[in-house]
Amino acid sequence: MITSRRLLLGSATAGIAATLALTGCGPAATATGTGSGPAAPKAAAATTIPDPCTLLTKDDITTLTGTKMEADGKAGANHQCDWNEPDPATAYGVSLQILPITKERFQQDAAIGHPVTGVGDSAYTLAGSLIALHGTVTLRVLYLPALTTDNTLVMNVEKKIATAVLAKF
Length: 169
Description:
Blueprint: H1 2-22, H2 58-65, E1 70-71, E2 80-84, E3 93-100, H3 103-110, E4 114-116, E5 122-126, E6 129-134, E7 137-144, H4 151-166
Antiparallel strand pairs: 1-2, 2-3, 3-7, 4-5, 5-6, 6-7
InterPro entries: DUF3558, TAT_signal
Keywords: Signal
Protein name: DUF3558 domain-containing protein
């Protein structure tokens, strides 16, 4: 059951990462202009991206979600950290990803999402994730609670997590 729960979180985060990559919000989203037509947006200026696993402890995540969580390891090249609820009978999970981005690129990506107020410089939701701009970085928060269809609850938890992370920048 733990494996299937982690596969669920892994599949969800992989799907979000693919969506973000397709919309230009990801590690491969740095483009340069070619000789013809308008130039693509420039990559964000060299930005130091913190390891998201160091920004919140499992106790912080437990407090923010109301459910005991465990960290699943360190962030890799994709600058992502995942936490899972240890009880195999449930499927709670949180994924946090931080990537460089330009404001222009963020605005283009936000056009396909739904605006969210009160988080970062600007924010939107897309495919269940809250995506917030803070300076030259984008923060993606995905909260997967067990057995709920309450989107307001999910968004409120994602906003609390994003606010806690952005306070550390």
